[in-house]
Structures are given as structure tokens and as C-alpha cells.
Amino acid sequence: MIARVSVSQLRERLAARDEFALLDVREQGVHYQGHPFFAASLPLSRLELMAEDLVPRRTAPIVLLDGGDEDLAGRAAAKLAALGYTDVSILEGGCSAWQAAGGELFSGVNVPSKAFGEFVEHHYDTPRIPPEELQQLKASGKKLVILDSRPYDEYHRMNIPGGIDAPGAELVYRVHDLAPDPDTLVVVNCAGRTRSIIGCQSLRNAGIPNQVVALKDGTMGWELAGFECEHGSKTVAAAPSAQGLAAAQAAAAKVAARFQVKFATRATVQGWQSDAARTLYLLDVRTREEFEAKRIAASRHAPGGQLVQATDEYVGVRNARLVLIDPARVRSVMTASWLNQMGWDDVHVLEPEGADGFGGWPLEDGPRRRAVPGALNVATIQAQELNALAANPATCVVDLATSLRYRARHIPGAWWAVRARLAAAQAKLPPPARLVLTSDDGLLARLAAPEAAALWPGLEIRVLEGGNAAWFAAGLPVESGMTRATTTLDDVWYKPYDHEHEGDYEKHARAYLSWEVALVDQIKRDPTIRFRAYD
Questions:
Q1: Which positions ≥6 away from 471 have C-beta within 8 Å?
Q2: What sign for the dihedral angle of Cα 462, 463, 464, 466?
Q3: Considering only the top CATH level, what class is 380-473?
Q4: pLDDT at residue 376 above 80?
Q5: Contact call for residues 356 and 325 (beta carbons, < 8 A)
Q6: Which of 200, 221, 289, 399 could join 188 in a cystine, given CB atoms 3.0 to 4.6 angstroms apart?
Q7: CA 213, CA 187: separation in Å to the nearest integer?
Q8: Contact (Cβ atoms closer than 8 angstroms) between residue 193 and residue 516
Q9: How far apart are CA 457 and CA 399, in angstroms?
Q10: Could you tell me where in the chain the CATH 3.40.250.10 domains are found?
Q11: Looking at the predicted structure, is the pLDDT value of residue 373 above 90?
Q12: What are the residues facing 438 on neighbouring strands?
């Protein structure tokens, strides 16, 4: 029997300092509609792909929740048990019970980080500049630099004209060469608010002599004000010069003292790795290029700005021990300073050793790869073979990628489904003689194959080898649009930009920005939220 936890017991856990993970196993788009503040999203459909990173210690206590009127949590508990997790319980009544008992439900994703950004703006009175004023300054020839604090792929999609990509924790690391003249105004932007606020305040906390402001409401605010963004830009802030690095390290040292950043040696961290009673995250906060060139074995990539922006996507266990890795000790310190303020007690910056900072550590390079538990060997079909069968009505292709990816392009004739809802999809699919499952790279389809076999006993079931990526790489035909959906489009959160094709981007952008602003008042109604303010 799976243990049950009452709402009052969950409140007690949230008030304590012991480790535990609160995981919402509904699809991300459903999670977005409302959940307890500290619930991290672990959709049942993608559980095996995400569980080990979110909860690396198999004995860590886990509380699962769903809406309360479904058995998603029960199904997830069984999967986690099969993966070796030993302390799994379910919130009795799920989100419905939490709300009925007076618990606050928060809409949105990455809510702790988003709410923290609003808290920071209010506490530090972080300065901001409206888009109209920025445009006037640009036209006047004012000496300024616009730094985009988002990852490159977001920046490349759209950016403020003239902006330079310097994601999150890279700002303090690289700014000294980008704005060496103290008279240069530094403007930090993101898509909306959080990373603009945190980025701007990071530079202010670091004590750079320039005036620093956040662009009010980011690229969304810029477009809502009637200005156009650039698309496809490739201007990325260069790595710091020797002089720039020295200035960044001096600034980071002051930040470390002010915000009580803790440090740990290699010997200490390696001792923690053998502590079976505590959960340990080794998080490399550098750029992906640096991470893939050389990294500590068993570490994960969690670029500093994104770790602060979306902490719940990287760390699923509350009150766990976090070690941040950056041999330069700038990005790690800046990230730790923010996590301390978010209420994390056990965050440490790894002290570098040796010429490269990794002395004494086992090292890896290249893209991070690991086996996914439960990904069984199943019967497969090659892309060219499937293409030859595509016109046969007896062959039914089911695509388990996200609705966003399916909408963008998919195999002609393929149906879109959510793995956790395959049983419901069965009634909508034409009776097939052969079922072919696919997903982005085929891995999710492999995980779903045994479940499909149980639903369609005796039917030939194949998985597309290499998934959609193999089909696209082969240059085979594609179609776009939500042509054959078997369920509602709530598997993932649709960002405001994802609604552009519907013609109502402005409505969604304004609603999103209003939601962010309102979080600062909503968190006051939840006594379990404990952000820290430093003088």
C-alpha cells in the first residue's frame, strides 16, 4: 500500500527543515493552472526522463500530488517504486484537498523563482526603464549597452535591437569589458521581468560604477509599446579579459561577504558524495560550451541565470545540499548569493584546485549522456521503412512529442497523444493493424511501448528508430498544425510567444506580465514562503 499524507502533515513538512520532494505529476500545462507554491513539475508522461535529475537520492522522501480526482499520483508512485525510490507517499485528495483546506494555489510555472524576482524588485527598489524612454535614449546617442540575460536560443529568437547576449550569471563575469566606461548606461532585459530584475540587481550588488537599470517588462514590454525586436541575432558577450576577470572576481568576493556565501573544498564535497542520508546536487553554472569541454563527473549543467530563474526544474528536493561549480568563482558566487536569499540553507561554492580548477576530480567531456531507467529494447522501424508504409491506412502513427513540437512539424498523418493519456487516446484512433510510436528522439516512445502493448494486446507495435529527429534528418515529408489531436492541449505551458499564430499574442503577453506582478502580493498569503532580505 502507498502511504497517504494529509494536508496538515504536508504543511508540517513544509514548515520543517528536513529534506523532501513535493512533486506534481500532472502534465506541465495542468500544473500551470494551479498548484502549491513549492510543488515541482514531474509529469507522469516524462517521469523516467526527469526523476533522477530532480531527485537523485533514491531514499529521499517524496510526496506526490495530482488534481485529487484521478489516479495519476498512484501510477507515478508505482513507476518511482520500480525505479528504486523507497519513500514515496501521496497527498490525500491532491490539489483539491489542499485548496479546500485553505491552501493557496499558484498558477504559472517556476513560481518560486518568479515570485522571488518580484520580491527582489520591491525589497531593493531595483530601478527600471520603460521601453519608450530607452528608445529615446537610443535615438539621442546616449552611451549605453543593452545586455540580454536570457540563454542564447531565446535571445536568438528575438531581442531588443543592438542587444548583446549575456545570460544571467554571465553578467557580472563579462560586464567589465562590455561597459568599461562608468558613464555607460547598462540596460538589462529578458523576455518579461524576472531575469531583467535579477540581472540588474546582480550588477548593482556587484558594485559596478555604471548606472544599471532593468528594461520594464523585457521584450514583451518593448513590443507592447509598439517597437520591433530583432530576430536571428548572434552577438554574444565575449569571455572576459584578464583585467575584466580580475574585476569580476573582486566584485564577486564582496558579494560573497555581503550575502554569506559558503565555500567547500574538494575533500569536503567528496565526503558529502558518500553521505547516504543527504541529497547532493553538483551543479555546474558555467556556459554549456565550458561544461561540455571539461566538467566534474556526475555534475549537471545548470547555468547560473537559469538556475535562479527556474530552480524547481533543476532541484526537486527541498532543503537538499547544493554545490555550485565554476573555477572562476564568479558565476557560482553570484548564483549562491541569490539561492541564499531564496531561502536555501545548504548552498556551497566549490573551491577550485589546480591550474584548471578541477584538480583531483574525475573529469568528463562532451554532451552529458546517461541511461534512462525503463527504456526497454522494443521492436523498431526505420524512417524510410515507415515512409513506405505511411500511405497504408492499417498503419497508425502516434506522436508523443509535446503539442508545441507536433504543431510545428510532424510526420504526415500522425496522431498527437500524451503518453499518460494513451488509454483515452485509444478511443479516438482508427482501428490499426500496426501501431508506430514516435517522439522527439524515440526515447519517450520506447518507454510508452509496453503501455501501448497492454492497451492493444496482439497488435504489432513498433517504435520509430531515432524518433522524429531521424525522420526530419532524412528529409522526409512533414506537415504542421494540430491536425490530429487526441486530447486537450495542456501537456505543456504555452508562453505568450507561442500564441503568436493565433493572433492574440498581445492579450497573452499582458496577462503574463500582470500575473508576475501580482505574485508579490499572493506570496504574502502563504506562510510557508521564506525569502531572505539582506541589508
A1: 383, 386, 387, 411, 438, 464, 478
A2: negative
A3: alpha beta
A4: no
A5: no
A6: 200
A7: 5
A8: yes
A9: 20
A10: 3-108, 116-254, 256-359, 380-473
A11: no
A12: 399
User: Are 466 and 439 spatial neighbours (Cβ–Cβ below 8 Å)?
Assistant: no
Query: CA geometry: angle at 416 spanning 412 and 417, to 5°?
Result: 155
Q: Which 8-state DSSP code applies to residue 106? A: B
Q: Residue 436: beta bridge partners?
A: 397, 462
Grid coordinates given for 382: 526505420
Q: Does residue 522 come out as left (phi exceeding 0), alpha (psi in the -120 to 50 range) or beta?
A: alpha
* Radius of gyration of the chain measured on its C-alpha atoms: 24
Cβ 90 vs Cβ 64: under 8 Å? yes
Residue-wise burial string across 286-309, b where 16 or more C-beta atoms lie within 10 A, e elsewhere: bbeebbbebbbeebbbbbbbbbbb
Q: Which amino acid is at 238?
A: A
Strands (E), 149-236: 164-165, 185-189, 212-215
> 25-44 burial, b if ≥16 CB within 10 A, otherwise e?
bbbbbbbbebbbbbbbbbbb
Write down the architecture of domain 116-254 according to CATH.
3-Layer(aba) Sandwich (3.40)
Q: What is the CATH number of domain 3-108?
A: 3.40.250.10
CA distances (Å), origin 31, targets 25, 67, 191, 275 = 8, 9, 22, 33
State how far the alpha carbon of 388 is from the alpha carbons of 383, 385, 395, 437, 466, in Å: 9, 5, 11, 16, 17
pLDDT of residue 375: 66
**Which ranges of 277-382 would DSSP assign to H, the alpha helix?**
288-293, 304-309, 311-314, 331-342
Among 407, 416, 469, CA closest to 442? 469
Q: 270-276 contacts: CB < 8 A, separation 24 or more?
A: 272/321, 272/323, 273/298, 276/57, 276/59
pLDDT band at 501 (very low <50, low <70, confident <90, very high): confident
Give the distance between the most distant pair of CA atoms in the chain: 74
**Quick one: cell of 153?**
536560443
- Average pLDDT over the chain reads 96
CATH 3.40.1030.10 fits 256-359, yes or no: no
* Cα 163 from Cα 181, distance rounded (Å): 18
CA dihedral of 115, 116, 118, 119, whole degrees rounded to 10: 120
The string of pLDDT tens digits covering residues 433-490 is 999 999 999 999 999 999 999 999 999 999 999 999 999 999 999 999 999 999 999 9
Cβ atoms 208, 175 nearer than 8 A: yes
Q: How many helices (H) and strands (E) does the chain have?
A: 23, 23
> Measured between alpha carbons, how far is residue 54 from residues 127, 302, 311 in Å?
35, 12, 10
This prediction has a pTM of: 0.96
The Cα 337–Cα 207 span in angstroms is 14
